[in-house]
Amino acid sequence: MATTLQLQQQKSTVQGYDYDLAIVGGGIVGATLACALKDSGLTVVLIEAQPHSEAVAKGQAYNLSLMSSRIYQGIGVWSEIEPKLTPYQQIRLSDADCPQVVQFFPKDLGLHSLQPHFPRKTAPALGYVAEHGILLQALQDFLQDCPNVEWLCPAKVIRTAYETDGVHLDLASSSDIPAAIRVRLVVAADGARSQIREKAGIGTHGWQYWQSCIVATISPEKPHSNIAYERFWPSGPFAILPLPSNRCRIVWTAPHAEAQTLAALDDTQFLQELRRRYGDQMGQLSLIGDRFVFPVKLMHANRYILPGLALVGDAAHCCHPVGGQGLNLGIQDVAALAEVIMIAQQQGEDIASLRVLKRYQRWRRLENLATLSFTDFLDRLFSNHWLPLVVGRRLGLRLMQALQPLKFYALKFMTGLSSRLPKVAQN
Ligand SMILES: Cc1cc2nc3c(=O)[nH]c(=O)nc-3n(C[C@H](O)[C@H](O)[C@H](O)COP(=O)(O)OP(=O)(O)OC[C@H]3O[C@@H](n4cnc5c(N)ncnc54)[C@H](O)[C@@H]3O)c2cc1C
Question: What positions does the domain FAD-binding occupy (predicted)?
Answer without folding.
Answer: 19-365
